[in-house]
Design brief:
This protein is mainly alpha-helical. The protein has two domains: 74 residues; 31 residues. 87% of the residues lie in helices and 0% in strands. The protein is rod-shaped and about 95 Å long. The chain starts with 5 loop residues before the first helix and ends with a helix.
Length: 119
């Protein structure tokens, strides 16, 4: 019958124990890594939220400055073109007048339609 080599079996047991320790450490490392994912996601979301908050704050400051400037121009009785310039609109004075005349005509048409329906 065949003889069993005990040295060979002992060597396999040592190799298996090393593999088992490697697997144990790999599982522990994987568990730690997975437990860190929510913290990493939270950190990313917080950073992006802060960036968005800075952008919104900056835009709100700009809008507030534009409104203050336009209100001052209205209170001083300045024209529509100066007010639109305060809002950084790229319209010439002629375009402002054309748009204003069109709006006046639309409002007059609405008054005529509204008034004509009641008489």
């Amino acid at each position: 019958m065949a003889q069993v080599d005990n040295k060979h079996e002992a060597a396999m047991v040592v190799k298996q124990s090393k593999v088992l320790w490697i697997l144990v450490f790999a599982v522990l490392w994987l568990a730690y890594s997975i437990s860190q994912v929510p913290l990493i996601v939270e950190k990313i979301l917080h950073r992006e939220s802060m960036n968005l908050q800075k952008i919104v704050d900056h835009e709100m400051d700009d809008a507030n400055d534009n409104y203050e400037e336009s209100l001052n121009l209205i209170l001083q009785g300045k024209g529509a073109h100066r007010i639109l310039t305060a809002f950084k609109c790229d319209l010439s004075e002629e375009e402002v007048m054309i748009n204003a005349n069109e709006e006046i005509r639309r409002q007059e048409d609405l008054r005529e339609q509204h008034g004509g329906g009641h008489h």
